[in-house]
Design a protein that fits this description.
Strand content: 5-15%
Strand order of the largest sheet: 3-2-1-4-5
Helix content: 25-40%
CATH superfamily: HUPs
CATH architecture: 3-Layer(aba) Sandwich
Number of helices: 8
Order of helices and strands: EHEHEHHEHHEHH
Distance between the termini: 44 Å
Length: about 230
C-alpha cells in the first residue's frame, strides 16, 4: 500500500492502543498519533504513549490537554477508589466506576477535528468488545453510529470531499489475540502501561481490572509480560 494515506490513531500507551498503532502503520497509513492528558489519575500512561509512538515511528504525536476532572464521575478522574481483584464475570456484567463519562466520544471528536485539518479520512481506535470491562463506548454499535455522525457533522463530509471511517482492528479479538498481534507487528510491550491505579513509583498495581485483563492476556498468549507489578 502507498504510504501517502493519513490516519489519526488514538494512543493511550496501553497494550491495545500500541497494537492498533502498529497495525495502522503496517497497513500503510501515515499515522498521526493523538493522546490525551485529561486529568486521569494514571497520567504515567502518557510517557508510555510517547515511548510507543517514537518506537513505532508515527509521523507525529499530539498530546491534547483537556480537564475531565471538572466533571469527575469516574474513579479515573475523581477521588473514588479503583475496584480491585474482581473476577471476569463481574467485570463484564456491569459498567464499572472506572468508566469515564463519554470519554471515547470526546476522544473521537478530537480525532475527527484533526482529520479535517490533515485532510485524512481514517481514525483508528483500540477498543475491544470481547475482553473489555463493560464500557458502552467499546461496542460496535457505538463505532458505527459515530462513523455516521462523522460524515454528517463535518464540512468535508457534507461537501462530499471525505468519507470518514472509524477503524477498530481489535474489536473482535481476545486479549491474548491482541498480545499476539502486537508482538507480530513489532510492539515492545515493556514500553506500555495499562494500570488504572499505579504506585507512586509507577509500578502497576496488578489488581485493577486493566491489570488483571492484561496479565490474563499475556498468560493465554504464552508470552511473558515484561512489565513489573506491585503485587
Amino acid at each position: 500500500m502507498a504510504l501517502d494515506r493519513k490516519a489519526v490513531v488514538l494512543v493511550s500507551g496501553g497494550v491495545d492502543s500500541a497494537t492498533t498503532l502498529a497495525l495502522a502503520i503496517r497497513e500503510g497509513f501515515e499515522a498521526h498519533a493523538l493522546s490525551f492528558d485529561y486529568g486521569q489519575r494514571h497520567r504515567i500512561e502518557l510517557e508510555a504513549a510517547r515511548c510507543v509512538v517514537q518506537h513505532l515511528g508515527a509521523a507525529e504525536h499530539v498530546v491534547a490537554k483537556i480537564d475531565l476532572r471538572a466533571f469527575g464521575g469516574s474513579a479515573l478522574t475523581a477521588e473514588i477508589d479503583v475496584p480491585k481483584s474482581r473476577d471476569p464475570g463481574r467485570m463484564a456484567a456491569e459498567i464499572p466506576i472506572t468508566y469515564v463519562p463519554a470519554r471515547n466520544t470526546i476522544f473521537l471528536s478530537f480525532a475527527l477535528a484533526w482529520c479535517e485539518v490533515l485532510k485524512a479520512q481514517d481514525i483508528f481506535i483500540g477498543v475491544n468488545a470481547v475482553d473489555y470491562s463493560g464500557y458502552p463506548d467499546c461496542r460496535p454499535q457505538f463505532l458505527e453510529a459515530y462513523e455516521t455522525l462523522a460524515n454528517l457533522a463535518t464540512r468535508e463530509g457534507v461537501e462530499g470531499r471525505a468519507r470518514y471511517r472509524v477503524h477498530a482492528p481489535l474489536l473482535r479479538m481476545t486479549k491474548a489475540g491482541i498480545v499476539k498481534a502486537g508482538a507480530a507487528a513489532g510492539v515492545d510491550f515493556s514500553m506500555t502501561h495499562s494500570c488504572y491505579d499505579p504506585t507512586s513509583s509507577g509500578l502497576s498495581c496488578g489488581a485493577c481490572d486493566s491489570c488483571l485483563l492484561r496479565k490474563q492476556g499475556f498468560q493465554e498468549a504464552g508470552i511473558t509480560d515484561p512489565i513489573r507489578y506491585a503485587r
